[in-house]
Fold this sequence. Notes:
The protein is an alpha/beta fold. The protein has helices at 2-14, 25-41, 62-74, 91-104, 118-128, 140-149, 151-156, 160-169; strands at 47-51, 78-80, 107-110, 134-137.
Amino acid sequence: MKKLIRAFDHHIAAAGLSDGDRVTVRECKDALEHVVDMMKATPPRLKVMISGPMTGIPDFNRPLFNAVAAELEQQGFEVWNPATLPDCWSHEHYMSVTLQWVDEVDALYMLDGWEHSKGAVMEFDRILRGRIPVFHFQTLAAFRAALTRSKALSASLVNWPSVMEDHRHA
């Protein structure tokens, strides 16, 4: 909605109008057409949630989560970062929020050690339900953990050993 309002405001300013001006129906239609054109020209950004260990790590692993978030944002992703949530919640409350986020995002970015995190494992399992997920893995170790955890994910990869062998020799 904010994007729509910004686009409309941009059109109004470009037309030399202000909030107090009267406009014709034709001017309103022109403005809406301009906004629709702008919206079509800007593809939606892929929504990525960071998932990984937090509990038991100093500062809840926020420095790593925030560094990854900054990198992903710089690459043009819309980032959903659980490290931005308040400190005072129970683990159950965090999980109710992040599992809801999983239903909204397009991809998970799995940090190293995610497989040892109860919450990250729940997020990983949740995104596999009923859709084809997109994953980003911090390292090959995080990816291998995903293959070990999910037979469906492992089976979806075609000839994975030969791909890895080709990668090693490249």
